[in-house]
Amino acid sequence: MQDKHLFEYAIIRVVPRVEREEFVNVGVILYCRPQGFLQTIFTLDEARLKAFAPDLDLAEVEARLLAFEKICAGRREGGRIGELGLAERFRWLTAARSTIVQTSPVHPGLCYNASETLQRLFSDLVL
């Protein structure tokens, strides 16, 4: 039987007005060192976000989320951060920040398959 692997994840949130501390969950980022896995998945429910924050610039939010995706993939388009190791990229992406796109605190867990776990967390926590 295959052993379970330790993973860490954070929920990606859109925080239109940081001072109000209100947010909408839009994605998940998951890191699993034993499986060499770092990936994010997100969705922008335009109607929900516009109802929550009518003045929200969805193009800007999408650009920031796509940057998360590029950094996770380790692409050169991810800039210098995208060239770091998996753990460093995950820590950078989940660091506390005061911007429109933020992450929750990091949570640990155990999984057999990081990709399946990412999909399950996305379904449970975002959709």
Brief characterization of the structure:
The model has no long low-confidence stretch (mean pLDDT 94).
Span between termini: 32 Å
Enumerate how many helices there are, as a single number. 5
The overall strand count is 5
Low confidence ranges = none
As a whole number of angstroms, the C-alpha radius of gyration is 15 Å
Structural class: alpha+beta
Shape: globular
Structure, described:
With 127 residues, the protein is of the alpha+beta class. 37% of the residues lie in helices and 26% in strands. It has 5 helices and 5 strands, in the order βββααααββα. Strands 1, 2, 3, 4 and 5 form a 5-stranded antiparallel beta sheet that branches. Strand 2 and strand 3 form a beta hairpin. The chain starts with a strand and ends with a helix.
Write the layout of secondary structure elements.
Elements: E1 5-14, E2 24-32, E3 37-42, H1 46-52, H2 58-73, H3 79-82, H4 86-93, E4 101-103, E5 107-111, H5 114-125
